[in-house]
TrEMBL record:
<dbReference type="GO" id="GO:0005737">
    <property type="term" value="C:cytoplasm"/>
</dbReference>
<feature type="binding site">
    <location>
        <position position="116"/>
    </location>
    <ligand>
        <name>S-adenosyl-L-methionine</name>
    </ligand>
</feature>
<feature type="binding site">
    <location>
        <position position="123"/>
    </location>
    <ligand>
        <name>S-adenosyl-L-methionine</name>
    </ligand>
</feature>
<feature type="region of interest" description="Disordered">
    <location>
        <begin position="278"/>
        <end position="307"/>
    </location>
</feature>
<feature type="binding site">
    <location>
        <position position="69"/>
    </location>
    <ligand>
        <name>S-adenosyl-L-methionine</name>
    </ligand>
</feature>
<dbReference type="InterPro" id="IPR002903">
    <property type="entry name" value="RsmH"/>
</dbReference>
<keyword id="KW-0808">Transferase</keyword>
<protein>
    <recommendedName>
        <fullName>Ribosomal RNA small subunit methyltransferase H</fullName>
        <ecNumber>2.1.1.199</ecNumber>
    </recommendedName>
</protein>
<dbReference type="Pfam" id="PF01795">
    <property type="entry name" value="Methyltransf_5"/>
</dbReference>
<comment type="function">
    <text>Specifically methylates the N4 position of cytidine in position 1402 (C1402) of 16S rRNA.</text>
</comment>
<dbReference type="GO" id="GO:0071424">
    <property type="term" value="F:rRNA (cytosine-N4-)-methyltransferase activity"/>
</dbReference>
<keyword id="KW-0963">Cytoplasm</keyword>
<dbReference type="InterPro" id="IPR023397">
    <property type="entry name" value="SAM-dep_MeTrfase_MraW_recog"/>
</dbReference>
<dbReference type="InterPro" id="IPR029063">
    <property type="entry name" value="SAM-dependent_MTases_sf"/>
</dbReference>
<dbReference type="GO" id="GO:0070475">
    <property type="term" value="P:rRNA base methylation"/>
</dbReference>
<feature type="compositionally biased region" description="Basic residues">
    <location>
        <begin position="297"/>
        <end position="307"/>
    </location>
</feature>
<keyword id="KW-0489">Methyltransferase</keyword>
Length: 307
């Protein structure tokens, strides 16, 4: 059964050109999940269904996949890729809101939960929300455009110190204060409302040599984390929702792409009354995968068994 969401108000976000998304650490994820037929599995960031397609193969017959995503565009792609089936349920929600999703489905507990905290290629190609500044478009950066404020509004109202904290804490950018000051100066002359405008301001404010990574990459990451409250969502999953809704002996697998995310996961799994870690150190991609799928270079997988 696919329960795709109602379209959000305004135009539905869609990538201008369909990107080819390769799920990161696929083999390692399936090994950590240790799936069997008949299991109930939550993919808390179902995306276009890359991981979920393989999960379904492993839990059939008799299993159920519950795919959750905040992004309506990604849920539509997941519905296309996974197909109509009574063992597939798709819901527009956050993994931090699993209580409401599972209560609605009358599912008291699940066997496995997977969360992949990275952006998909489809989101990066979306010209309507500015996730990939090279694709351009309005500076929105929200996964769910029905809730919260767009990044352009945050840039319009935040002061230098607030922006510095965001870029330093969420983007780990050494030029955080310089960039924040440049943004506040720039917006006094003209509002910063598009991805291209922000990328240009950041590039001009970033001294030194240019490597393979555009200087705006960390700034966009930081703003995305801020407007979507991603770390707060992760903390709620780890500290409250997952321990209650994963049955004893079940597993939680988290793929992170940011040092703060990884630290939260590592610290949560140290709570030995709740979790038995399966990964002493995070699992990372092989050199071959990193060459074929550059997104995997910063991916770190941790897994634990619910006691």
């Amino acid at each position: 059964m696919t329960d795709t969401p109602a379209s959000p108000s305004g135009p539905s976000p869609r990538p201008a050109v369909r990107a080819v998304h390769i799920p990161v650490l696929l083999k390692e994820t399936l090994a950590a999940l240790d799936l069997r037929p008949g299991m109930t599995v939550v993919d808390g960031t179902v995306g276009a269904g890359g991981h979920s397609r393989k999960i379904l193969e492993a839990i059939r017959p008799g299993g159920t996949l519950i795919g959750v995503d905040r992004d309506s565009m990604m849920l539509r792609l997941a519905a296309e890729n996974l197909g109509e089936s009574p063992d597939v349920v798709l819901k527009q929600s956050s993994y931090a809101e699993l209580d409401a999703v599972l209560d609605e489905l009358a599912v008291p507990a699940v066997d496995r939960v997977l969360v992949d905290l990275g952006l998909s290629s489809d989101q990066l190609a979306d010209r309507e929300r500015g996730f990939g500044f090279k694709a351009g478009g309005p500076l929105d950066l929200r996964f769910d455009v029905r809730h919260g404020q767009p990044a352009s509004e945050l840039l319009r109202t935040a002061d230098v110190q607030q922006l510095t904290d965001i870029f330093r804490d969420y983007g780990e950018d050494a030029n955080a204060h310089r960039i924040a000051h440049a943004i506040v100066q720039g917006r006094s002359k003209s509002p910063i409302e598009t991805a291209e405008q922000l990328a240009r301001v950041v590039e001009q404010a970033s001294p030194g040599r240019r490597g393979d990574t555009h200087p705006a990459t960390r700034v966009f990451q930081a703003l995305r984390i801020a407007v979507n409250e991603e770390l707060e969502q992760l903390k709620r999953l780890l500290g409250d929702v997952a321990p209650r809704r994963i049955r004893s002996g079940g597993r939680l697998v988290v793929i992170s792409f940011h040092s703060l995310e990884d630290r939260y996961v590592k610290d949560a799994f140290r709570e030995t009354e709740r979790w038995e870690p399966l990964t002493k150190k995070p699992v990372t991609g092989t050199p071959t995968e990193e060459r074929l799928n550059p997104r995997s270079r910063s991916a770190k997988l941790r897994a634990a068994v619910r006691r």
